[in-house]
TrEMBL record:
Gene Ontology terms for molecular function: phosphatidyl-N-methylethanolamine N-methyltransferase activity; phosphatidylethanolamine N-methyltransferase activity
Transmembrane stretches, start-end: 20-37, 99-124, 166-184
InterPro entries reported in the protein's UniProt record: PEMT/MFAP (IPR024960), Phopholipid_MeTrfase (IPR007318)
Pfam families: PEMT
Swiss-Prot/TrEMBL keywords: Endoplasmic reticulum, Lipid biosynthesis, Lipid metabolism, Membrane, Methyltransferase, Mitochondrion, Phospholipid biosynthesis, Phospholipid metabolism, S-adenosyl-L-methionine, Transferase, Transmembrane, Transmembrane helix
Pathway note: Phospholipid metabolism; phosphatidylcholine biosynthesis; Lipid metabolism
Annotated protein name in UniProt: Phosphatidylethanolamine N-methyltransferase
Amino acid sequence: ADLYVMTWLLGYVDPSDPCFVAAILTITFNPLFWNVVARWEQKTRQLSRAFRSPYLACYSLGAAILLLNVLRSHCFTQAMLSQPKMESLDNPTAYRMGLALLGVGSTFVLSSFFALGFTGTFLGDYFGILKEARVTTFPFNILDNPMYWGSTANYLGWAVMHASPTGLLLTAVVALVYMVAILYEEPFTAQIYQQKASLSHKR
């Protein structure tokens, strides 16, 4: 069934379109960038030394990630606009469904940011900036990695609002890339908080 859906979506999409290629590149590059840089910082502390503060280094990486995400969203939108709409999605009901997805996604993204703070959102763990314990309040008490899944819901809602098969396909790529990022990030986050708890217990 999944293969059928993908084949059906590809019938609407021109993968050679420069806007589509740019969207794929930005979607895949962004998590790769922040994970590679954060792991490098965790091992070497080069950014913290360069900025003379782990906080300034984290803020700088966060600003870079935000700019890259703006570029990703721009490329995503341009890819949708450059390719045909799906007639069956181009109706008021689907548009309202897209708005609802956008609302849910934004709620998860914003509530995650407020729960974690700037440094918690933008990989402060890798800079040695740790919270007392892992956050378990809303929205983390509803699902794991709400920032990633909220972002995915935003892209899905945006695609449905534009009745865009290209947007739906790109959203699937966003979800896949985030799943890979989670597999890479989760063990490290769990490990550092286990180490922190162990050190606190010894004291």
